[in-house]
Design goal:
The complex is a heterodimer of chains A (239) and B (356). Chain A has 239 residues and is α/β, with parallel strands linked by helices. Chain A is built from seven helices and 17 strands. With 356 residues, chain B is of the alpha+beta class. Chain B has nine helices and seven strands; from the N terminus they run ααααααβαββαββαββ. The chains are: A alpha/beta (239), B alpha+beta (356).
Amino acid sequence: MRVLIVDDERLARAELRRLLAAYPDVEVVGEATHVEQARQQVEALTPDLLLLDIQMPGGTGFDVLEQLDEPPDVIFTTAYDAHAVRAFSVNALDYLLKPIEAERLAESLERVRQRGHAQRASEPSRPTGTPLERVFVRDGERCWLVQLAQVPLISSEGNYSRLHLPGHQPLLLRSLSYLEEKLDPARFFRASRQHLINLDFVETLEPGPGGTLVARLRGGPEVEMSRRQSLRFRERMSL
Amino acid sequence: MSSRRTLVYAACQLGGWGLYGLANILLSLLFIATTSRGGEQFASRTAWTVLMCISGGLITHLARTWLPLREWVRLPMRRLALLIPFTCTALGLVQQVIGLVLAYPVLHIYGASDFSFSFLIMGGAFWAVVMLMWLLTYLTVHFVEHAREVERERWRQEVAAQTSELRFLKAQLQPHFLFNCLNSVRALIVEDPVRAQQAVTRLSTLLRHALSSHGPETVPLSQELQVVRDYLSLEGIRLEERLRVREDVAPETLGIAVPAMLVQTLVENAIKHGIAQTPEGGEVAVLARVRDGALQLEVANTPAPAGTPAPPHSSGEGLHNASERLRLLCGMGASLQLDQTSAALTTARVRIPLSP
């Protein structure tokens, strides 16, 4: 497991290195001290896991994740942050409180390993240039690493996009066109200027007004395709 | 207190009505001097004036006793606008009736031919105006007193709030700082045991200071600086070469009393908003000197680069509270200002006037 440590304090990084030395399968590939450096290091080194401090110069650990195209697995490290702890208590993102207990670190690493195994088993090969698979989103006080395969619908909101998940609709700081380019075209289809739909979620297709198509998605919403995209969709389906 | 108030009230009543009577008698004398027939009525007119003053004094005194005038200061203006004219008119009418009885059947100042409708109305209006003046004077005194009491109460509450707030601040001592510090110390135990031991000692001193919440509200600057040094050395372990400290304190300032934790708050701010936000770090400078009859304190720091988002939980409240506390403890002449006009330096300036 290749790990990148992000923390603005040298002693905190040294302490993490010391703790991680106990794991032969863990390799610390680099260190970063602030938001911008962290982004560059992740892109250059493509680590499997980020040990990410929340408070640092130039922003927070959340800002780092929001800037990354496809964030690796993350374990947050924080001295004390009631907000952050609340943010994690509702989802799978893991965190460690400083000073870090060796046992808690072991648990977190084990969790990451299992998650990694599950993913690698389902997709044996991951060549470079693979489509975007997950994104980090923040919605008020909560934050998630969202698997995009589980998102039925993405709609455009100006320069941003909204993910329509059951129960919450977080905003993603990327444009819909950008996402269309990065997402797996076999799974996501641009239904109109406003919508990107996940084909796995399409339940029924009905003819709409003027030769368009209306897709009903599992779990609720109906999306009307534009005329042009309806045509394209029909062509694609008939192939 | 209340006996003094009664005395003041009595003096005002006697003085007011006495002056009114005296002025009237003097006017009557002037009247006699200018006319030939005035002399006959002078005695009865003087008697009437004296009796009117006594009845006026009595009526207003009874009004003060029977009406809840002191509670009127709490009433809304709209109710007062109705109450005051009504009360004046009523009191004025009573006085007018007494005046007529005294003037006609008792003292024979007027004959039956003197009475006309407009004469009666004019008399009533005159007394109503006199009563209005009395009432306004009385109410004004109470209004001023009431306002002063409200202001005093407000200050009392503010001081109480500030005191409890200070206790709270001292008690909680930034958990974020505390745990980061412990984390650094843990790393130091392996790396440099001697420094780790020093850090634990410093942390103990700081904690002991923070926990002794019953201490004085102001401390000599020398004592405050000792706390600041402990704090800065701990932050230094955490931030290492990113934190550079400069201290320039004139010896004559060391004994001057400053609000406890004031410099500490400013230094903490300087690190939180400045040094900790900058990857390459910067300098915190603490300056103290006496100039123009005042203690001048400055905490200057290299600011965060432009466009840095504000760290969480920072609403500028800390600085505002510090400024309020400073004024409460050191008087209205004391001030705290944050100077962010220079891009290269953020400076918090404190001025505490020295008492002569």
